[in-house]
Amino acid sequence: MKRYRLSLLTILIAMLLFAAGCQSSPAESNDQTQSAEETKDLILATTTSTQDSGLLDKLIPLFEEEENINVKTIAVGTGQALEMGTQGEADVLLVHAPAAEQEIVDSGDAINRKRVMYNDFIVIGPSEDPAGISGLSVQEAFRKVFEKNAVFISRGDDSGTHKKELGIWEAAGITLAALAENSEYIETGQGMGDTLQIAAERGGYVLTDRATFLAHQDTLGLGILVEGDEDLLNIYHVMQVNPKKHGKVFAEGAEAFVNFMIKDETQKIIEEFGKDEYGEALFFKYTE
Question: What are phi and psi of 87, to 5 degrees?
């Protein structure tokens, strides 16, 4: 009888120990539940230049840690990013085509638009410069490239860079119809990094943002031929997709991201980004 009681007691103790081992402490369980409830996904639609330059790799982890929000970045041309905004398929946009951006603000698809930073566009090409554009204004350079029937590589993807390029051709008096008939005008339909590689392979001229060029210049064998023109300013804005028009967007997260991008600490990081690796900043703060 004593042996039976001892065995029963041993079994009960073992069961209690097993149950204790399988359960988290109330504090741990509560923390895990709270964390799961608080962590949400934020969809950021942005231009490829912010991704290709490496800037987002620097900024997004800081935002995620501060806000306990997981950012899903979709890097596409600015035109496609803006379209995602008008369809309510993104929560927040970081883009660089001011006229097109203003259109979706006017339509009510985007709100809280803030100027974040700027850099500039440049025209790069082979060192032998067959069209002789070095040092010209950007409009004169484009006219010469066309007249000399030199190879020009275009993104052709409705991105902010593509929109800027088409505006320069128009200002230079070259129509889209004329470009379409030019066999040396090549549209890649790809992002800036890939387009630069194609320009290097073909020995062509290309319009690019300076940040992406600096990030890829060691693999290109192309040099800067036209820069500093007023027409080449490249301004980036951040904005929320309007939750009153698109009810499924993560409005609180989008507002937090806008505020993060324009606050002083982030602006200082932006101004320092690239200096150690490239000897110059890739972007400059430009808050309103």
Answer: -95, 0
Backbone CA torsion sign across 281, 99, 146, 133: negative
**Alpha-carbon gap, residue 89 to 83, rounded angstroms:** 8
Q: What would the pLDDT profile of 111-123 be if each residue is shown by its tens digit? A: 999 999 999 999 9
Contacts of 226 (CB under 8 A, 6+ apart): 122, 123, 133, 134, 135, 136, 137, 138, 141, 232
Provide the terminal-to-terminal Cα distance of the chain, rounded to the nearest Å.
Answer: 86
Q: What is the pLDDT of residues 178-202, one digit of tens each?
A: 999 999 999 999 988 999 999 999 9
State the helix-helix crossing angle for 264-272 and 251-262, rounded to 10 degrees: 60
Q: From CA 258, how far away is CA 109, in angstroms rounded?
A: 16
- What is the amino acid identity at position 143? R
- Least Cα distance to 129 among 225, 2, 19 occurs for 225
